[in-house]
């Protein structure tokens, strides 16, 4: 299947990626040509920058990967796309700032933190953005590449994005060292002795940006006179998703997010030919400027992400692992939190529901699992949340319930236990709560759980 892209206002067939690939040395030379004339205009420099797809293909073909950028194991849009874009932005800005060092372009290689198959089948909003950016999923390195050819990645220096604890169990015996962190989650205080940079946008128990891609956008708009459109659409779309289109009721967006959105819209050459767009879709793409309309862009991505048919078709196990994050408090006992984009009533109707939860907890070697059901009402776009506590022992659930109910006003999640809340099955106890404080996402709930396990739990 061949795609079409718009270049100089004319529709032309997009060549297969193998035809578009050029030699590594040529890619470096292309970037250098864009930086040799200091007075070159933004419009003339941006088209000479290599596409994100070509950059990814070049990085993937290296025989040895010295430096990796990795998102968190959940592999959501922010984790995957911030890794791709951060590697691109830092590598190309390094070339611009070190014109004599032709190896700079090869310094950072991004890695998708989930298998490509999962990316294709379980991340519809991420795939939609990659399609708009004309990035074939085959160009993206993933965790399967590490498992298949571990020697290529041995001894790599790691940049963590969208998390600040490397999942060492997923990458054992590779002698990796964490050298940089770019994140917006609770700081677990790790890698102080190895990190050159620890940029963690989390203060006073809350994130100061809604998305790591905001931090990437800040770097991109400061480094480039104009941001390439393929990178810009990935960053813009993810910021809009994570900030819920800067809706104040969601409580996600911050001034930094809004500034990043504005900068991307104004400092991107949307007509540079790198996007796959449809001229007959003026609701999404402005026919005069080529810029996407943010609200329509958000709506398209949100519809893909919250597609009820998609979520209903997933098994219990796939629903849990789709957006799962694991945490290890100072007592060394790990626990997990999964975000599921269905209401609890729909989720519990899935086949083999209790057995699948028990098996998932056994496979991940945890005794407590939090499930955050996040969904929109059928008659409105209002966000709703439910918190489900799953444990192998009933006393722990009762103790944790008391802990949440006793939290002060600032931390209180406004939990209201549902009718017939307690479900007791073999080796599993479940309690279900409606969460009145819908602004509290996993970024706020996880630190509360960490505090419970460190100060209140006797297990």
Automatic annotation (TrEMBL):
One of its GO terms (cellular component) is cytoplasm. Residues 298-453 form the DHHA2 domain. It comes from Amphora coffeiformis. PANTHER family: BNIP - RELATED, EG:152A3.5 PROTEIN (FBGN0003116_PN PROTEIN). Gene3D superfamilies: DHHA2 domain (3.10.310.20), inorganic pyrophosphatase (n-terminal core) (3.90.1640.10). SUPFAM superfamilies: DHH phosphoesterases. GO terms for molecular function: exopolyphosphatase activity. InterPro entries: DHH_sf, DHHA2, DHHA2_dom_sf. Signal peptide: none annotated. This is DHHA2 domain-containing protein.
């Amino acid at each position: 299947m061949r795609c079409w892209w718009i270049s100089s206002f004319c529709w032309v067939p997009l060549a297969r990626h193998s035809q578009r690939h050029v030699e590594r040395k040529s890619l470096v030379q292309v970037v250098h040509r864009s930086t040799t004339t200091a007075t070159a205009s933004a419009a003339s420099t941006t088209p000479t920058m290599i596409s994100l797809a070509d950059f990814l293909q070049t990085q993937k073909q290296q025989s040895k990967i010295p430096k990796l950028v990795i998102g968190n194991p959940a592999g959501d849009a922010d984790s995957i796309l911030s890794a791709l874009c951060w590697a691109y932005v830092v590598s190309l800005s390094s070339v611009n700032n070190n014109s004599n060092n032709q190896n700079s372009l090869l310094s950072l290689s991004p890695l998708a933190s989930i298998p490509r198959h999962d990316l294709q089948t379980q991340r519809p909003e991420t795939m939609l953005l990659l399609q708009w950016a004309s990035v074939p999923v085959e160009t993206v390195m993933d965790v399967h590449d590490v498992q298949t050819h571990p020697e290529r990645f041995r001894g790599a220096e790691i940049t963590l994005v969208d998390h600040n604890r490397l999942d060492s169990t997923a990458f054992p015996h590779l002698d990796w060292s964490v050298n940089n962190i770019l994140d917006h989650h609770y700081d677990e205080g790790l890698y102080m002795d190895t990190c050159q940079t620890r940029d963690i946008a989390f203060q006073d128990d809350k994130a100061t940006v809604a998305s790591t891609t905001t931090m990437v956008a800040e770097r991109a708009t400061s480094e480039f006179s104009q941001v390439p459109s393929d990178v810009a659409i990935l960053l813009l779309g993810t910021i809009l998703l994570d900030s819920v289109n800067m809706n104040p009721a969601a409580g996600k967006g911050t001034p930094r997010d809004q500034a990043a959105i504005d900068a991307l819209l104004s400092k991107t050459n949307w007509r540079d030919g790198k996007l796959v767009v449809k001229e007959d879709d003026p609701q999404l793409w402005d026919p005069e400027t080529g810029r996407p309309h943010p609200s329509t862009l958000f709506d398209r991505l949100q519809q893909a992400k919250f597609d009820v048919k998609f979520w209903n078709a997933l098994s219990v196990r796939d629903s849990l692992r789709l957006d799962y994050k694991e945490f290890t408090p100072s007592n060394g006992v790990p626990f997990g939190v999964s975000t599921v984009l269905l209401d609890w009533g729909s989720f519990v109707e899935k086949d083999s529901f209790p057995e699948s939860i028990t098996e998932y907890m056994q496979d991940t070697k945890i005794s407590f699992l939090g499930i955050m059901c996040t969904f929109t009402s059928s008659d409105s776009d209002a966000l709703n949340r439910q918190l489900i506590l799953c444990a192998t022992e009933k006393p722990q659930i009762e103790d944790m319930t008391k802990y949440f109910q006793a939290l002060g006003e600032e931390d209180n999640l406004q939990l209201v236990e549902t009718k017939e809340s307690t479900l007791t099955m073999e080796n599993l106890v479940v309690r279900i709560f409606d969460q009145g404080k819908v602004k509290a996402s996993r970024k706020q709930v996880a630190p509360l759980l960490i505090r419970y396990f460190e100060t209140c739990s006797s297990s």
